[in-house]
């Protein structure tokens, strides 16, 4: 399995990169992808929601009426959940929504997404980006050359590149990340995945650990 390497003008360079079948050519496991995406979204939740229970309401504790003889239901104090302004029964409390997943399952999820993207011809490889100074205009020129200006795209770098990151930061449809920071959610959320030359090998090695 091979992909042609493109330059920043969107033209073929004549070079090819060999992709590992065990990473880009497996049968996608949808449940593994579901679990990792669920884990990612759960970790984004603040979990600071809180409602007051009966014991936390500031109000009189006086019994509203006598227990028997009224002909209607018995009442306690005004803090009862049956009254407006009373405490809430089993209300939400601050909690951490994060949960753990096995590393093998998370690797399988990433491989599944990449394999599906490969089937959809949504993966490209571009030779190294060289931006002298952080300029969004320069990055937009590259996106236009690759016909990605109207598409959600994820650029995967082999190493930290501050100029590339800062140049793309203001673009809502473009995300730039290092190869070891990627989650399945990032891969799914991108319409096109662009590997910089050298990032593919490192990404494949990272998934084989």
From TrEMBL:
A cellular-component GO term for this protein: ribosome
InterPro entries: Ribosomal_uL4 (IPR002136), Ribosomal_uL4-like (IPR013005), Ribosomal_uL4_dom_sf (IPR023574)
Entry annotated with the keyword rRNA-binding: yes
Any single biological process term in GO: translation
Annotated GO MF terms: rRNA binding; structural constituent of ribosome
Xref: SUPFAM superfamilies: Ribosomal protein L4
Record keywords: Ribonucleoprotein, Ribosomal protein, RNA-binding, rRNA-binding
Record's signal peptide: none
The keyword rRNA-binding is annotated on this UniProt entry: yes
Region annotation Disordered: where it falls in the sequence: 45-91
Recorded family membership: Belongs to the universal ribosomal protein uL4 family.
Function per UniProt: Forms part of the polypeptide exit tunnel. One of the primary rRNA binding proteins, this protein initially binds near the 5'-end of the 23S rRNA. It is important during the early stages of 50S assembly. It makes multiple contacts with different domains of the 23S rRNA in the assembled 50S subunit and ribosome.
Assembly behavior: Part of the 50S ribosomal subunit.
UniProt protein name: Large ribosomal subunit protein uL4
Lineage: Bacteria, Pseudomonadati, Bacteroidota, Flavobacteriia, Flavobacteriales
């Amino acid at each position: 399995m091979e992909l042609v390497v493109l330059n920043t003008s969107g033209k073929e360079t004549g070079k090819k990169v060999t992709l590992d079948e065990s990473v880009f050519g497996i049968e996608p496991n949808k449940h593994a992808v579901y679990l990792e995406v669920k884990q990612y979204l759960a970790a984004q939740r603040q979990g600071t929601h809180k409602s007051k229970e009966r014991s936390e309401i500031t109000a009189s504790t006086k019994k509203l009426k006598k227990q028997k003889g009224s002909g209607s239901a018995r009442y306690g104090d005004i803090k009862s959940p049956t009254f407006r302004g009373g405490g809430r029964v089993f209300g939400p409390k601050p909690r951490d929504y994060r949960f753990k997943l096995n590393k093998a399952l998370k690797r399988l999820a990433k491989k599944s997404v990449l394999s599906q993207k490969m089937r959809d011809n949504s993966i490209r490889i571009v030779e190294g980006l060289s931006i002298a100074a952080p300029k969004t205009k320069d990055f937009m020129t590259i996106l236009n050359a690759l016909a990605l200006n109207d598409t959600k795209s994820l650029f995967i770098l082999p190493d930290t590149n501050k100029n590339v990151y800062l140049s793309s930061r203001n673009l809502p449809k473009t995300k730039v990340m290092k190869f070891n920071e990627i989650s399945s959610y990032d891969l799914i959320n991108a319409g096109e995945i662009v590997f910089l030359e050298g990032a593919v090998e490192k990404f494949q090695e990272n998934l084989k650990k």
